[in-house]
Amino acid sequence: MTAKDSFTKQPWIDPDDAPELDASFFRHAEVRVGDHVIRPASGTLTRPGRPPSADPKQQVTLRLDRAVLDAFRATGPGWQSRINAELRKALGL
């Protein structure tokens, strides 16, 4: 990469610097011989991310006053959850 590539936001990472695969990786990995699965994957390889919520949140578009938005964002990470908590409190939920 050259210095002229100003559109690149993150530095280039050499693929040879990838982390080593340790014993834990292979303990949980799926084992196959051709198309035949000898042992299915276990652990986090089969259950990525959080478990499904009984009451999942819904994505919406909401317009807020700039001052309100700035005040919540200034409180740091988790500001959207704090807006949700304040709305629940205001509604008595």
What does this structure look like?
This protein is α+β, with helices and mostly antiparallel strands and 93 residues long. The protein folds into two domains: 16-47, no CATH class; 59-93, no CATH class. Helix content is 29%, strand content 8%. It has helices at residues 23-28, 66-73, 79-91; strands at 31-33, 36-39. A two-stranded antiparallel sheet has the order 1-2. Strand 1 (31-33) and strand 2 form a beta hairpin. The model has no long low-confidence stretch (mean pLDDT 83).
**Largest sheet geometry:** 2 strands, antiparallel
Strand order of the largest sheet: 1-2
Strand content: 5-15%
What would you report as the Rg, rounded to the nearest angstrom? 23 Å
Question: Could you tell me the mean pLDDT?
Answer: 83
Give a brief rundown of this model.
The protein has 93 residues and is an alpha+beta fold. It is built from three helices and two strands; from the N terminus they run αββαα.
Features:
93 residues, two-stranded antiparallel ribbon, 3 helices, single chain, alpha+beta
Question: How does the SSE layout of this entry go?
Answer:
Layout: H1 23-28, E1 31-33, E2 36-39, H2 66-73, H3 79-91
Antiparallel strand pairs: 1-2
